[in-house]
## 1
Amino acid sequence: MTVTVNFRGHEEPVTCGPEETLLRAGLRAGLALPYECASGGCGSCRSQLVEGEVKSLWPDAGGLSERDRRRGNRILMCQSIPTADCTVKAPILDRLPVSREAVPERVTSRLLGREALSPDTALFTLDFSSPIDFLPGQFMLLESPDGVRRAYSMAHPAAGNDCTTVEFIIRAKPGGAASSWLFDKVQVGDEILVEGPYGRAYAQSGSERPALCIAGGTGLAPILAITEELLVENQTRPVDLYIGARMARDVVLHDRLARLNELGARVAVSVEDPDFAVNEPSGWAMFAASRVGRVIDHVAEDWSDLSDHDIYLAGPAGMVDAALRALVRERGAFSDRLFFDRFIV
Ligand SMILES: Cc1cc2nc3c(=O)[nH]c(=O)nc-3n(C[C@H](O)[C@H](O)[C@H](O)COP(=O)(O)OP(=O)(O)OC[C@H]3O[C@@H](n4cnc5c(N)ncnc54)[C@H](O)[C@@H]3O)c2cc1C
Ligand code: FES
């Protein structure tokens, strides 16, 4: 069923197709709607349903507080599919950051490969029948036949207008709904429904500032894409890449890290495992540093002032939140030069 949505403050009514969320319909209409995770977890897309009806893809989504629920008319645009004509009061952003962003679409892809990178992490390659467009650092929602939708970040830039294969670095969460589907059920050759691209934590092309790129766990995926883009775009810009992992075996894709190193990135690795030998495993000599401990502590150790930097961060929400606090409060980082994705797991 197609319905009409009126976003308060925007004159033109927006048509919303079947199975289309308010967020996607609004972005398609060119509205600078606020959002971050597109997964129901962060609350950035919280809005007020003034009139009409919506169904929620995730009624218990963490992005709404108990207080929001008591109010009765608070909704998450990324989780709401209108079932009748609606009026929505959404905080449309003044500064329009969307002009470079491709409009999110729903397309069918095919699983081309699943290569184990560590005992619980794999590189998934999806094949699309026509080229898709995205910015380095963005993500897509992969959807199972049962309707489980989860966000995964592209691990490389789109590289021109003919990108038909896309790679994702995915960690299996024990008992996780998408993890069970992606690691145990879906077979090479099977179709996978994909919605995207989404995300605003992408490489800022045109910036002359030095860049710090910080990845925790599979936050490596968007950070690889961003680092590559920054280095290829401007060979003189200093780029420092920090990788945080629980165990040495979680530091994956050494060939790509070596390539980024050759392109000019200084690569430093932090391993939390206290048993991590100070004598690095063979092949780790390319890293400028390999240390035991938390990646954010090592960033803070290496930098006393980050007021000149663009900073890119991706990884588990707890790690990203702690890093944001530390970098802004203690190292002078500017919040409008921080670009981050909090993985909700
Ligand atoms: C912007 C972004 C980018 C990400 N990129 C990556 C990546 O590149 N690689 C990677 O490995 N992981 C990534 N993640 C994490 C990933 O999306 C999954 O959370 C993770 O794979 C675990 O999913 P699961 O279904 O296996 O686990 P589950 O435990 O089943 O789900 C994980 C979480 O999803 C949330 N959730 C969302 N919708 C629902 C729903 N309808 N019902 C119940 N819970 C729901 C819950 O908070 C739950 O804790 C990213 C997350 C975000 C937000
Ligand atoms: S809850 Fe909708 S964007 Fe995060």
Note: The two ends are 32 Å apart (CA to CA).
## 2
Amino acid sequence: MSNSKTTTTTKENIKNLEKKLGEILGLERAAQKAVDELISMKLIKSDLKDEAKDIQKEANSHEDKIQEAVSELSEDKDIKLDTQKVEETAKETEQKATKMMKTYLGEEPDTSEAIEFLCLAEGGEVTHYEVLSSISKNFDNKKLSTTVNSILKEEQDHLKRCLTMAKEAVSS
Ligand SMILES: [Fe+2]
């Protein structure tokens, strides 16, 4: 492999990493807001509320961990991640996700729709962390891979918990 090819590949990988980290930050932020909003709209009640709050707390910790990874990767002399670009993508993704929720819920949303939207959001998070995990393999950075894979496991668990909630919401 020539030097120029190596450089191009690396640049492309860094771009992919920046984009995916930004999208993930946006999704984590939107997910936390969604829980607050659905609770204030009284669409998530009683026992489901505690479970949603618990998932929200973990989303907050994921956001912190990814934010920390972004800041460390920006200081890495081989990667020099552009934090501003990450933040731009995060804002854009958060707005898109918020719009999606409004569209999905429509005029008169019920509890089922609210929980199902949370399931969709968790499914989106799982997808993005799976892809981020693949992107991470292009870098020789053990901490990044470990962080991403540990969050991915929790996101897979979030999706399962959301599905359980969705079923509970319709069982009498
Ligand atoms: Fe999640």
Note: The chain has a mean pLDDT of 94.
## 3
Amino acid sequence: MNVFVTGAAGFLGSHLVDRLLADGDRVVGIDNYVTGSRANLAHIRGSQPFTFIQADVSQPWTWAASSENPDLIMHFASPASPVDYGREPLATLAVNALGIMHAVALADKTKARVLFASTSETYGDPLEHPQRESYWGNVNPVGVRACYDEAKRYGEAYLTSAVRKLGIDGRIVRIFNTYGPRMQPGDGRVIPNFCLSALQGRPLTVYGDGRQTRSFCYVDDLIDGIVRLARGPGLQGKLVNIGNPIEFTIEELARIVAEVADVPLHMVPHDLPPDDPTRRKPDITLARTLLGWEPNVGLREGLVSTLDYFRELTPVA
Ligand SMILES: NC(=O)c1ccc[n+]([C@@H]2O[C@H](COP(=O)([O-])OP(=O)(O)OC[C@H]3O[C@@H](n4cnc5c(N)ncnc54)[C@H](O)[C@@H]3O)[C@@H](O)[C@H]2O)c1
């Protein structure tokens, strides 16, 4: 298959490219480096059936004319952490709205399949727990996270409408918190924060009372679920949660990071950011039944390689 991956230089995009190349696909990666990094793709440049195009995918996809038609377009480009989309709210809205529109237009011409990377943030601060795909969510449309949450909801609505109106083979993955090597150190998400603090001998900053829960999926598990959704036959129009349903409080996570990093645990409290969801946990029944997928990597195991990555990246105490 010839696969276009937008956001290829990002955390998830680069792991996705690795997996597609390992499966024998030809891959065109597109990225403007707004949050991604050249280092994430340095290991594959020039040595495999991989082409990189530096472009903003919110702009018309003129570069596509000089590439072989895609069989599959995976739209992953978007700032993804509160720090990143807080800094680039308009670009975040654009890349999810205009980016999916360009992907659909190309798919309509070439008959390519489209997979859109959506998010558990479409559930907002959920009133249903765990979250099933049928839940419509509880999102503040004018809050500080709206540029991301509503952009993803628009992307979902656009692709779903294109499935109905144009017969596009569109599929949507709602990704829950994922972690692993190549996460950006400064993106403000809890796992990089805790790993870096632990490695640098600083206290771990815990927002709120630390009793809010999150579930954390290791990146290899997530990518496997996404690839199953992208490749599976008869999945046109499907929307599937992919994430790890095992819930941890933020305080528990702090303890586990300190234990795996083998450092004493010191925590400092901090005010909760606005619109921070109190609970998040995927119902993965659909992923299990439709894709035969479930996560395999436990939190402690995943943290070992994540901490190794951050250890190599940063000077430690
Ligand atoms: N990491 C998670 O836990 C998580 C959770 C839910 C959803 N997602 C979704 O998965 C996707 C990837 O997330 P990530 O964690 O890898 O984030 P990331 O910031 O590491 O990667 C996003 C990539 O998209 C690129 N990009 C952004 N806007 C662009 C544009 N206009 N044109 C070209 N490239 C652009 C960035 O430079 C970056 O390389 C995003 O769509 C995100 O919303 C991620």
Note: The domain at 180-215+246-281+297-313 is CATH 3.90.25.10 (UDP-galactose 4-epimerase; domain 1).
## 4
Amino acid sequence: MAPRIRSNLRANAMATATCNFCLPEGYHLMTDEIIERGWIHDRNGNRREIVGSVTKEEAAILAGIIYKNGCRRSVETGVANGISTLAIAQAIAANGGRHYGIDPEQSSTHDYAAVSLLSEHCLNGCFSLMEGPAHIMMPQLIAPEELFDFAFIDGMHTFHYKLVDYFFADKLLRIGGWLIFHDLLLPSVKKLYRFIQTQGKYRTWNTPQLEPPMAYKLRHIAASLIKGKPLPTFWPNGFSNLLVLEKISDAERPWNHFNDF
Ligand SMILES: C[S@@+](CC[C@H](N)C(=O)[O-])C[C@H]1O[C@@H](n2cnc3c(N)ncnc32)[C@H](O)[C@@H]1O
């Protein structure tokens, strides 16, 4: 094997690890029954169907990372009905920490559904809602003496908003902190992941337990073809919809650095 290929393979092996973030036997994650029943209440007691939230398995990974690493300070973009928020807040509360949830539409579109859900589960005390878009709210959290242990990005899904969320999450996180993206199946998130790889600041953790069955993968690829989209060939993390990154460096690239991605 050519030395360059060998050294690339070695670098990739170092850059990727396989996750062991399972919650311990008997850990009761509150999101399990909420996701199973498929609805929550808003502030006025009206039922709202849960759509677009993390799955039970993804919620368990979020909580598992916080549990296993003793995270105490966390931030999330895209709160919506508060499913991911509930999983994160439960794990953060157990560590005696605080969770910040950013969403511009909690009082309008979502009619305080997430706030009601947290209050139903007695988790309001460790949660701060920041109502507004992430690009306005995240800079307000920057304080070098109070870095974050965990950031979950699930707000606006276009590439440029995701890039801005990444930029600020990176400023907020300590080395050893965790940066998680939902919707890794979206081209915008996959593109951003390619960019993040050019920066050398994050190690990728694979989550084999989230890998969907072959039939799902084939359906997904068929749907792309039917919609006339270019056939995607880049499926990081075994086609799962979550991207788990650990911050390993704060070093910035030189002022004129650019690697295509
Ligand atoms: C897919 S939902 C989040 C689902 C949630 N994380 C869960 O698992 O239950 C996306 C949310 O992003 C919010 N959003 C839209 N633009 C945003 C922005 N610029 N900053 C932060 N959140 C945004 C929307 O209001 C919506 O609630």
Note: Residues 26-247 form a domain with the Rossmann fold fold (CATH 3.40.50.150).
